[in-house]
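My current task is to audit a protein record that another person submitted. Alongside the sequence sits a line of tokens, each denoting a local backbone shape. Where you disagree with what is written, explain briefly why. This is what I was given:
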Amino acid sequence: MKKGNGKTEDACLELEQKYPPKVKAMYEAVLELFASGRELGTLKVSEITALAGIGKGTAYEYFSTKEEMIVGAIQYEAERHISTIFELIENGQSFQEIIFQGLEMLEDTCKKYDGFVLLEKIMRDRTITGSSLLDELEKRKKNCCSAKHLTDRLFQLAEEKGLIRERNAFQVWSAILSQFAIYAFYLTHPSVFDQADREAARNFVYGNIIKLLN
């Protein structure tokens, strides 16, 4: 096993310490309600706290609005995935293995949230709740240090192995995200790609990423 990167270990530890137990319980409750198919506009703080096993008043000790809680839960879920990728990097996994693990997490998320219905609901919601959620998401865009750090580490890993020549961060992530979007489309339209093999699809996506970065 490779020696861990100090900054990465700090990032993983920070994730554990960042959220108090009651906050994590509320985030888990929000995500569970989303996974059950609940509509954003009808979601109530009392439902979230009841599922989390805490009093409703406790929620307002940590959050000013319901939207702040919901966006926090989305960020919490994303940071857990980022933490998993960090661990793979520090455990010596190859760039290909990490990309494949990312595709697997994408697949799990698709199953959990019914083909990214959650994201679609946020984008299409024209109620006050939907608008407030988008505003809250915009506020939190500045707090993307974990994602930026992950970008740097993945880029470093691929470069060290001589897999990529592209050095522009925008083009690197454009290549990766565009192929993940293609895989997401593949996952959410099984009737269109009913004859496509899952392993072949993953290899195709990885191969395209490498081609785009060279």
